[in-house]
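Quick question: who can interpret this fold?

. . .
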Amino acid sequence: MLTMFCYMVSCLGFKKRPLEACCGVGGEYNFTIDKECGYEGVSNCQNPSEYVNWDGYHLTEAAYWKMAQGILNGPYATPAFDWSCLEYYESVNKEYPFIK
């Protein structure tokens, strides 16, 4: 799945450089191990939703969201996720509200 993000980033709405970190400083990929996100002088991009990589270690919220959508709604799960189980959970939750 992550390989698809690296090869099809523009199709998914991300910038064309999937390994470039949104939050970082220096280097070819905007990542320097001794100047990580949160350190003084390290900035983050204006629009994180355009990036796959957040800080050189973690993906952005947008990338995780796209992955989750692919798992829950296809095409990354075979067979596709069965949403009917949520109907059962909602009916059980109404009958037994203490179950969460």
In short: DSSP finds three helices and two strands in the chain. The helical segments are 2-7, 61-73, 84-95.
